[in-house]
Structure formats: structure tokens, C-alpha cells
Amino acid sequence: MFWSILQKSQYSFEGKYSEETVLALLYRHWFVLLTQAIFFGIMALAPFVLYRIGATFISLGIGYWFLVSLYFLFWWQSLFYRLTFYVLDVWVVTDHRIIDSEQHGFFQRTVSELNLNKIQDITVKISGITPTFLDYGDLEIQTAGTAERFIFKQIPHPNQVREMIMQAHAGYSEIHADEPKAHGEPA
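Now predict its structure.
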């Protein structure tokens, strides 16, 4: 089934340490994809509605349908672009680190890693009626040093994720208090 690509994987990824346990694999909330799908559905109907309205006033010929075909080429590319972002923006929380894999374009991706002992502060931002009702929002992790913030965008249950990360941070700090990096070799 098509939707199986949007579900959780076997929690295995390139560079995973052999002693590392994946606690969460996070994508954007499903409602974000739904709102974009509704928008693209409405935009797919727009040329036909315009044709129906315009045909009553003027004669629309082959030039109109040529422009509609160009419109649908742009529409399809935009839809694919949004689906790509939804599927490839992923955040992995393990018992040793946090991995932020963010797609910035079709051929541009940033993968950042944060060791749990570098976490200083975690902030949850839920803004609006719908995000509050459906319990999704942004989670920002402030790190020690000059590194920029890690931002998990529009994830489901951000307060639960914050608690999970704080517990993992406490457990990691307790076990590896004197080690800067617990494991150096990926599995």
C-alpha cells in the first residue's frame, strides 16, 4: 500500500551504533500533510472552474488548454515537492543522540547530530487552535556551545517527546558522566 512509506521503519539507519537504541522516529503530524493535500485538491479543480466560468463569457480554445497543461505540470511538481519534504524530513531520537535529517530541496539535505550530553534546554511551541486540539507543534533543543538550535517542526505530541528526551538525557548523563562520547563506531 502507498501509505506504508509514511509509516515507521525498523529503526535502523546508516551510522547507527551497535549499542544504540532508537527511542523515537518522528515525522511531521499527519494533519500537515492533510492540509496540503486539500490545498492541492482545490488547486487541481481551479482550471475547470475557471473554464466553466470563462466559457460563458468568451470562447476558450486550444490556447486555454495548453496553459492548463502547463499549470498541471507546475502543480504536479509542487505536489511532489511537498510529499518529498514530508517523507524525508525525519528526526531520530536514540538513547545516545538526536539526529535531524532535513530536506531543503530535491537535491539538498542537511543531517545534523547532537549528543545527548550537549542538551541544555528544550522548548515546546504549540500555536493555534488546531495544533492545540490535535497536539502537535515545534520542539526546540538548545545546545551547549555555539551550535544552532535543533528544531523538530510540527511533530505530534511534542510534550511527550520532550519528556522522553529529558529522560534519555538524564539516563545518558548518569551512565556516561565522564565520557565525552560513549560509542565511536557505527554498527
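The chain has two domains: 15-27+91-175, 34-84.
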